[in-house]
Each structure stands twice: as structure tokens, then as C-alpha cells.
Amino acid sequence: MDSRTVALFLPQIRQRLLGVAVVMALTLVWIALTLVWCPLALAVTWYPVAEASQGKQQQLVDLDSIEPLGSGQVRVASIYLDRRSGELQKTTYITDYDCQQRRFRDVQYSGPTGSSAWLPVDPDPLNAAAMDYVCSLIQENTGGIDVH
Fold this sequence. Notes:
148 residues, 7-stranded antiparallel sheet, 2 domains, single chain, alpha+beta, elongated
């Protein structure tokens, strides 16, 4: 091949390489999102633990995701639903609760709110209800045995 022939095919080669790179990037993003949200994707038993604003705000926990962490702490996947604006806004969380010190921290979340630092749970009645529910389940099991 001479240099003119290579020059003719170079734009096509670049376009195909770009297409392959885009497909690879999208595949990696999909894999990353699947790994991050896997616990929520596997959730099968959503249980409503609290509501407010005449049912327009709801907190649900995934009973199958409850994981005792030891030292009075538990991790759980939950969903917060807010319909106050007329449109459904849904935020998913994976939250650690410290049952003895009544505090929480969000390990993962999909919405604009969330905190990775430990915060008191009592100012948030829906979150407090979720904590009370999962902590009571853990207390019912001797020695913090997994509730799955």
C-alpha cells in the first residue's frame, strides 16, 4: 500500500476505532453501575416502615438486605419516595445505623441528599422509623444473627 491509499482509509479506521472506544466505555460504565447498585438490584422484599405528609412521603426498607455489622450497628438498603411536588421523586440508599447511639450514615445513595458522616437520626422521623424497625429486628435475633 502506498501513502495515498493509507490516507484514504485513515478516516474510516479512526471512525471505527472511535466506535469501539465508545462501546467499551459504555460497557465499563454499565458494569460499574451494576456493581455499585447490586445490593439494591437484588432487593426483593420492600417493606414500608414510615410515611408522612398524608402518605406523600414514604420510607421502605429491603428486608433481604439487612446486615448486622456488629457493635450494635446494622446496614440496610432503603428507598425514600416523595410525591409532595406532584411528581414521584425516588432516592435509594444503603445506610449504616448505629442502634445504640441513634445515628446513621449513608454508604451509598442515588439522590441529592445523603451524608457519609455519622449524623443523629432523631431529627428525621422517617429515617428514625427505618432505624427503629431494623434495629428491633436485629435485637430479636440473639447475638445479632443475620436476619436473612
